[in-house]
Amino acid sequence: MSQLDQLIVEQIQIGPMQNFAYLIGDKATREVVVIDPAWDIEGLLNFVDERDYILKGALVTHYHPDHCGGSFGHNVVEGVAALLERHALPIYANEHEVAGVQKVTGVSKTDLKSVSSGDKLTVGDIDIEFLHTPGHTPGSQCFRVKHTLISGDTLFIDGCGRVDLPGSNSEDMFNSLRKLAELPDETILLPGHNYSAVAHATMGDTKRTNAYMRINNLESWKMMMGG
Ligand SMILES: [Fe+2]
What is the average pLDDT value for the chain, to the nearest integer? Predict the structure, then answer.
């Protein structure tokens, strides 16, 4: 899938939990970053090689193992640690998520680049803006690239990320979704999981049809979420 002339946007479904990894970059220079590399690092790197892309870094939406690798229950998911064994690349995580990513993946602090909301990363000629959207985890972040939003587990087309997990905060999620509701209607929402009938949607449609996006006051949110 590509949207604008210069922008590379590759949406790759990966692993048994319907995760989406993404490659975002510049068609002119073929430089890309990978978002949420997990489950099959070899497969992702082959995808990069087959298209003659040049991988410049990895961006992590949040510290859950299905997005960045690590273990949960009896499952071990490969992720940024396996990526670093193959390529010395910067791994970008929100300042409030760095410790969590370290703990879950086992990578060292020096492998991680801490970013704040509003920071920008330039890949080729493409600007990627980091948006801190806490709620699902304390340092969850979304990425805004031209008219797209890569939303991790903060916002799905028909829902939002769970807020009943360790580190979750329901009120933070409400505030993050209100912030995302301010994005232009033509923004293309690219979520962290393939949980809906379609793999992407406009923010305008999402605002109209997603029950979580339709709540605009905290009192109603708390009644719906039981918080
Ligand atoms: Fe998650």
Answer: 96
The CA distance from 154 to 130, in Å, is: 13
| Residue 209 in this model has a pLDDT that exceeds 60 | yes
Give mean pLDDT, residues 161-182.
97
* CA–CA dist 220, 63 (Å, integer): 29
Tell me the pTM: 0.96
Q: Measure 8 CA to ligand 1 centroid, in angstroms.
A: 25
Confidence (pLDDT) at 72: 83
Tokens of 209: 């049809």
Query: Does residue 3 carry a pLDDT above 50?
Result: no
Residue 44: the pLDDT is 98
What whole-number distance in Å separates Cα of residue 121 and Cα of residue 224? 37
Distance 152 CA to ligand 1 centre (A): 8
Classified as helix, coil or strand, 71 is: strand
Q: How far is the CA of 62 from the centre of ligand 1 (A)?
A: 7
Q: Which domains does the chain have, with CATH numbers?
A: 7-225 (3.60.15.10)
d(CA 55, ligand 1 centre) in Å: 24
Strands, E assignment, the chain: 7-14, 19-26, 31-35, 54-59, 70-72, 75-77, 91-94, 112-115, 120-123, 126-132, 141-145, 148-150, 188-190, 201-202
